[in-house]
Specification:
Blueprint: H1 15-26, H2 33-40, H3 46-70, H4 77-88, H5 93-100, H6 104-113, E1 145-148, E2 153-164, E3 169-176, E4 182-187, E5 191-193, H7 195-200
Antiparallel strand pairs: 1-2, 1-5, 2-3, 3-4
Length: 219
């Protein structure tokens, strides 16, 4: 089994490109190995090309074995925690599934079963996704970790600002994590309960994806 192919920045050694090269080399009228190297943007070196292809095939075989072993097996507590953090931090279903050697549908259905918020591709800042009924609430505690549907990420309640009569909603100031790491003011209907975070005692810094310090939050 070939392992540890070193990649230069300009080389196209992503899975999709390598898979394309494999198909081209294995078709009835295969491309030349020189052409394959050009597609991958690597120097013409047949031995290295063979190693790259073999590692790709080994990876596929390994993934298939792991997925087969995991098929039908329930998620353990550590896996659930990792999945929740990854999903609430913005990772896609496909990325989470690959890392856990599960199918996308299995991951998606499980996250839905524990009432994780939807992150649809059609959602925007002006038109955020609707929250699952199990997450809806008018009341949030200071320091409570919540889901912000408008920002599509986790936030921490910082202050209750009172009720807006025009909006007919309670307004909260919160610190928004993820790529934002900033303050926001939102009505309660845009915020969702994240009771599952208490189960795993997740920390706020697990949802920070920028270099900005948490010290910016109002105490």
């Amino acid at each position: 089994m070939v392992r540890g192919i070193k990649k230069k920045d300009y080389e196209r050694l992503d899975d999709a490109t390598i898979a394309r090269v494999v198909l081209l080399l294995e078709q009835d009228k295969p491309v030349t190995k020189k052409a394959a190297c050009e597609i991958l943007n690597i120097s013409y070196n047949t031995k290295r090309l063979d190693n790259i292809i073999q590692e790709h095939k080994d990876k596929i075989e390994y993934n298939e074995k792991r997925m087969k072993a995991n098929k039908g097996r329930a998620f353990n507590e550590l896996e659930i925690k990792e999945m929740v953090v990854a999903y609430l931090s913005g990772e896609s279903y496909a990325s989470i599934a690959r890392g856990m050697f599960r199918s996308i549908n299995v991951v998606k259905n499980f996250l839905k079963s524990i009432h994780m918020p939807e992150r649809s591709k059609t959602a925007t800042y002006q038109k955020p996704d609707l929250l699952p009924e199990e997450m809806v609430s008018d009341n949030f505690e200071i320091k409570e970790m919540v889901w912000s549907s408008r920002y599509n990420c986790v936030g921490e309640i910082n202050k209750y600002l009172g009720e807006d009569k025009d909006l007919r909603a309670k307004i909260y100031c919160l610190w928004v994590f993820g790529k934002y790491n900033q303050f926001a003011c939102q009505p309660a209907w845009e915020l969702g309960k994240l009771e599952i975070l208490k189960q795993f005692k997740l920390r706020d810094d697990e949802f920070v994806t920028t270099q900005q310090s948490l010290d910016y939050r109002i105490e």
